[in-house]
Design a protein that fits this description.
The chain has about 250 residues and is α/β, with parallel strands linked by helices. It has one domain: Rossmann fold (3-Layer(aba) Sandwich). β2, α3 and β3 form a beta-alpha-beta unit. α4 crosses α5. Bound molecules: zinc ion (ZN). Zinc ion binds next to loops.
Length: about 250
């Protein structure tokens, strides 16, 4: 590939709606800049408290798959995929199998930048978020290793792994133990579309009603921590996920 090939971003999430409330600003700014964006979500959210008109867990899962697709369209996501893991059960999933699914997708999609939650579990400390962080972190490193998963195609070295972090806590919930951020993204220009994407999750609208005013005060910025890169370097404060990025594809 040449240096003119578009940059690629992969975002790995646990539940339909993570892509908008946690990562929506980063996804939209990247798309506007011509970056190809992909979202891989592990579960279809069958264990959600808010169940809309769903008649069964399976029905809710089907509804949430459609809502996820609609949200990704609003966020201008190039490619989205929802895996078939059980909501609320990722801590019991087979670690190697789950990571292999991501290694395969990283080697196929060849992202330059990978986004996911931090090990704290994000702003609501959800255990599924913690596990997605663990799977994605291992996959980021192992996709680049010629010793790992040799049957899953040629290695790919992504250039940046970022964890989503937060500068606020829900007053009524157990506070996360957040990592310090290295990237401050001003997403105020697109923040209204984060809410538009969230409203595409119609089964989760009660959540939106509960938290909208809380989020509206805090939706103008997203925070990310640089967690890994192929080049040894001191942590510096950035305002973009792509600063100084050279496109290096091995194949
Ligand atoms: Zn979630």
């Amino acid at each position: 590939m040449t240096d003119k090939a578009p940059l690629k971003l992969l975002c790995v999430t646990a539940h339909p709606d993570d892509e908008c409330f946690a990562f929506g600003g980063a996804l939209m700014l990247a798309a506007e800049a011509g970056v190809e964006t992909s979202v891989i979500c592990f579960t279809d959210g069958q264990a959600a408290t808010n169940r809309g008109t769903a008649m069964s867990p399976q029905h809710l899962g089907e509804m949430r798959r459609a809502e996820f697709a609609a949200s990704c369209d609003i966020l201008s996501v190039t490619h989205h995929e929802l895996l078939d893991y059980q909501d609320g059960q990722l801590e019991f999933a087979n670690f190697s199998e789950a990571t292999a699914k991501l290694v395969k997708r990283i080697r196929d999609l060849k992202p330059d930048v990978v986004l996911t939650f931090g090990l704290d579990g994000g702003m609501n400390t959800h255990a599924d978020h913690t596990l997605v962080c663990a799977f994605t972190s291992a996959a980021f490193h192992w996709a680049a290793s010629p010793k790992r998963f040799t049957e899953l195609g040629p290695v790919h070295t992504a250039q940046r792994l970022f964890f989503n972090t937060t500068n606020f806590f829900f007053p009524s919930r157990h506070a996360p133990l957040p990592g310090p951020w290295t990237v401050t993204l001003d997403v105020s220009r697109v923040q209204h579309r984060k809410f538009e994407a969230f409203r595409a999750h119609t089964s989760q609208l009660p959540l939106m009603e509960k938290f909208q005013s809380f989020f509206e005060k805090r939706a103008s910025h997203e925070y990310y921590t640089l967690a890994a890169t192929p080049n040894p370097q001191p942590a510096v404060q950035e305002t973009s996920l792509f600063t100084g990025l050279r496109v290096v594809h091995e194949n």
